[in-house]
């Protein structure tokens, strides 16, 4: 791999002096672990569907076995995936930093499997299933779903207490984000010294508003993405590359540079 571009000294300084750091991740953070991004997950049975039409309460009501099959296929992909060097670098940062909050739009558990303990899931979690009628939590079987590559229709299980259908624990389009998650995410954004966005297109609100909350609060803003995004102009530093490349490199250079400065460890 070509030598990574030197990380700007200003960013190294900001990271070193930061007391509170927030990392805001999207589907691109999980891409190198083999979890298809939201829009890439439209293959096989779901090829002719538009993601936003599948991930809605109306779609589940209209065709529950199609939607449940899609989420079981995605859950299989997630369970077969392993955290990559970028996830591990963030877990390492949590052990070193004064305070790290990971705010993710992802419904997988790769941040937690890498070792991060302070993770806020804005869009829910694939494992946190519940009854669509009485909201009773539903425990999924522990084993990894065995789904055909092209996907299949699966009738959702039924709730043990009211017989209602069980739905995925994700936030669907048209649904509000859970306030018990959105409020602490907003507070962390407003209080952080450094904000690192990685692997999101910044198109979906209200999540995409959070970097602007951090900017207004005076945080140093960093974007990691191999492609430009509509919010790049709001960032102090844009690192063009992937999550698995840039995150380990960023913290390695921060540590190396620090050790070169007398009296710093
Ligand atoms: N490393 C870093 N970024 C990457 C990588 C990678 N390896 N691969 C792709 N990306 C970037 C893409 O350039 C793109 O900007 O990740 C972004 C993925 O964008 P989306 O697919 O739109 O995913 P996301 O931003 O998370 O979507 C937001 O919308 O789809 C709904 O609820 C879903 O949480 C999701 C939300």
UniProtKB/TrEMBL annotation:
It catalyses: N(6)-succinyl-L-lysyl-[protein] + NAD(+) + H2O = 2''-O-succinyl-ADP-D-ribose + nicotinamide + L-lysyl-[protein]; N(6)-acetyl-L-lysyl-[protein] + NAD(+) + H2O = 2''-O-acetyl-ADP-D-ribose + nicotinamide + L-lysyl-[protein]. GO terms for cellular component: cytoplasm. Substrate binds at residues 71, 74. SUPFAM superfamilies: DHS-like NAD/FAD-binding domain. 2 residues (Tyr-71 and Arg-74) present in a large hydrophobic pocket are probably involved in substrate specificity. They are important for desuccinylation activity, but dispensable for deacetylation activity. The active site is at 123 (proton acceptor). It comes from the Bacteria. The gene is cobB. PROSITE patterns: SIRTUIN. NAD-dependent lysine deacetylase and desuccinylase that specifically removes acetyl and succinyl groups on target proteins. Modulates the activities of several proteins which are inactive in their acylated form. PANTHER family: NAD-DEPENDENT PROTEIN DEACYLASE SIRTUIN-5, MITOCHONDRIAL-RELATED. InterPro entries: DHS-like_NAD/FAD-binding_dom (IPR029035), NAD-dep_sirtuin_deacylases (IPR050134), Sirtuin (IPR003000), Sirtuin_cat_small_dom_sf (IPR026591), Sirtuin_class_III (IPR027546), Ssirtuin_cat_dom (IPR026590). Zn(2+) binds at residues 131, 134, 159, 162. Its main location: cytoplasm. Binds 1 zinc ion per subunit. It comes from Hydrocarboniphaga effusa AP103. GO terms for molecular function: histone deacetylase activity, NAD-dependent; NAD+ binding; protein-malonyllysine demalonylase activity; protein-succinyllysine desuccinylase activity; zinc ion binding. This is NAD-dependent protein deacylase. Residues 1-259 form the Deacetylase sirtuin-type domain. Belongs to the sirtuin family. Class III subfamily. HAMAP family: Sirtuin_ClassIII. It is an enzyme of class 2 (transferase). Its EC number is 2.3.1.286. Its cofactor is Zn(2+).
């Amino acid at each position: 791999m070509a030598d990574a571009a030197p990380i700007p000294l200003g960013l190294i300084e900001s990271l070193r002096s930061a007391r509170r750091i927030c990392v805001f991740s999207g589907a691109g953070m999980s891409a190198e672990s083999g979890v298809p991004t939201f829009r890439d997950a439209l293959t096989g049975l779901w090829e002719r569907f538009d993601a936003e039409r599948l991930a809605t309460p109306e779609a589940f009501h209209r065709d529950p076995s199609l939607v449940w099959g899609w989420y079981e296929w995605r859950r299989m992909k997630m369970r077969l995936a392993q955290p990559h060097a970028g996830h591990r670098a963030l877990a390492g940062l949590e052990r070193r930093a004064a305070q790290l909050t990971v705010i993710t739009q992802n419904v997988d558990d790769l941040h937690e499997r890498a070792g991060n303990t302070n993770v806020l899931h804005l869009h829910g979690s694939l494992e946190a299933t519940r009854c669509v009628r009485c909201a009773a939590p539903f425990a999924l079987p522990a084993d990894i779903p065995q789904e055909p590559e092209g996907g299949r229709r699966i009738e959702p299980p039924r709730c043990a207490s009211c017989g209602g259908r069980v739905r995925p624990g994700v936030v669907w389009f048209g649904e509000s984000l859970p306030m018990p998650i959105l409020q602490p995410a907003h507070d962390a954004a407003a209080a952080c010294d450094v904000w690192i966005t990685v692997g999101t297109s910044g198109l979906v609100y209200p999540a995409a508003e959070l970097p602007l909350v951090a900017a207004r609060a005076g945080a140093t803003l960093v974007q990691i993405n191999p492609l430009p995004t509509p919010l790049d102009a709001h960032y102090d530093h844009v690192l063009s590359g992937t999550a698995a490349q840039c995150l380990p490199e960023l913290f390695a250079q921060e540590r190396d540079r620090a050790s070169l400065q007398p009296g710093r460890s």
